[in-house]
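Researcher: Good morning. I'm working through a list of sequences from a screen, and I'd like to move beyond sequence-only analysis. For each chain I'm collecting a predicted structure so we can compare shapes side by side. This is the next one on the list. No need for commentary yet; just the structure.
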Amino acid sequence: MATESFSPQTAASTGLGSEQRVRRRLLRMFRTPKGLIGLSLVVLFSLTAILSPLFIQEALSTKINVTARLAPPSPSHPLGTDQLGRELSYRVLLGARTSLMVAVLAVALSIVLGLPLGVLSGYFKGWTDLSLMRLVDTLLSFPVLLLALSISAILGPSVRNATVAIGIAFAPYLSRIVRSETLKVSSLPYIEAARAQGASDLRIITRAILPNILAPVMVQATISVAFAILAEAGLSFLGLGTQPPTPSWGLMIQASRDYLDVAPWTALVPGTAVALSVLGLNMLGDVLRDVLDPTFIFESAGAQ
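Model: Good morning. C-alpha cells for this chain:
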C-alpha cells in the first residue's frame, strides 16, 4: 500500500477548502443583511478609531466649558456635553481608539498565550495534556470579567494593565478551542503519513496543524474582540482601566451615573457606541464562522 505523501499543500487543503470556494462563500454571505450590517459596523468602528485622532486633537475632548455643562444635543453640540461641558462627540470618537487598541492588543495577547497551550496539549496528549489543561481549567473556574478585574486590581489601574488582564482572562477560552481543533487535525491520515516519513514534531505542528486550525482561531478572535471591548468598558467603569482625562466609553458611562435623570444622553451616547461595535463584531464573527466552516450549507439559498 502506498504511503500518503505529506506536503504543506495537502495539509492546508483539508482545513479551509479551496480558495475559490471560500471566496464564493464570503461574497455570498456579505450580501446577506447580517453580513452587510456586521461588515458596515466593523468598518465604521475601525475607521473611526483609526482616523479620528488624525483630525481631532485630544485637547478638544478634554476642554472644560462650564457655561455649557450638560447641554443637550443641538447644532452647536451635536451629541451634547457632559457634566464638565466637554463635547461628547469628540470624546466618543476618540474613545473608539482606546477601545479598539485595548481590545486588539488583549486578543493578540490571548492568542500568544492560549495558542501554544492548546496546540501542545492537543498534539502531545498524555501528561502534557493533563498538566496544561488543569491549569486552564483552574482559570476557567473564574468568570472572565472577575478574573480580569482581579488581575487588573493586582497590577494597578492603567490602560496597559487592563490590556494584560483581559488578555490573560481570555487565553483559557482560546486554548480550549485550539486543543479541540488540534485533537481533530492530529488524528487525520496525512498527519500519520508525516510521522511515517520522519517529519519532526515541530514541522508537523507548524506546517500541518497550525494552518488547519486558523479558521476557528480567526472566528474566536473576532468574537473575543467584541467581548474585550465590553471588558475594557467594564474595567474603566470600575476605575481599573483607562484613567481620566483620556476618553473612554466606560469612563463616560461611569461619569454619567449622577446625571441620568437630567442628561440621559451622557450615558446613551457612549452606551450606543459600545452596543453597535459589539453587535457588528459578533455579526461579523457569525459570518466568518459560516464561511470558514467546510460543512456549512447555505440554507437561505435553498429556501429561495
